[in-house]
Amino acid sequence: MTQTSEDTYRSTIRSTSYWHLSRSPFYSFVFTLPFFALYEIATLTLNKNQILHIRNGADVLLRHFTHLVLGDLGIHALNIVFIVGFVVSFLLQKNRRQMTTVRGAYLMQMFTEGLLWGGLLFVFIKLAPTLLSFPSGRSLIQQITLAVGAGLYEEFLFRVVAIFIFVTVIGAILQWERRWCTFTAVIISAFLFASFHYIGIFGEIFTLRTFLLRTIAGLFLGIVYIFRGFGITALAHMSYDFIVVSIITTA
Known about the structure:
The protein is mainly α. 77% of the residues lie in helices and 0% in strands.
């Protein structure tokens, strides 16, 4: 095998490996599709008259914004964005890697990895020693629904959207190398993520301890997102919330 052929072979292996494909937008969309469906079905079923009351705060914030921009269509804009994003990522994946199939084994590995990252986050927060609170006064199924929504929409807003915007803006203004733009963007998004939990009528009472813990959690999830992609990060966030819900339920 010539050097050129060997390099091509190694490049092909890398581009089709689990560590490479699992962080791609295509696999992230495929992986999170069942969670999006579960969340939307649950929110439509549990409380038809007060649908926004059982939606995650980041979800409500995004829908209010799209409603202001697009009118009544904006309420469903996030669903449309997700579908369009899935199609675009599929076409990009197809054109760049000539792949149209999804490896089920990779999805299972992503599920396991997401649970592991979420468990690691919980262990850290548990040792802090303050357990970050979760909305109380709701049924178990509503708590689970909110946990799924938090993993999906908070990670979409504070990792996918926020980090992309800050990397772009910082790079354009300061002309930094991309790695430093990304590093700064992760820090800023973590502060925004922590601050978000104290805003609005359903926000928590601010304490420095919980703010710092949420900031560190945001940094943790931001790093996972940069290296492992949206899908795994979303499940890591969900699995942390699932653990908290189970503790609240058993208590």
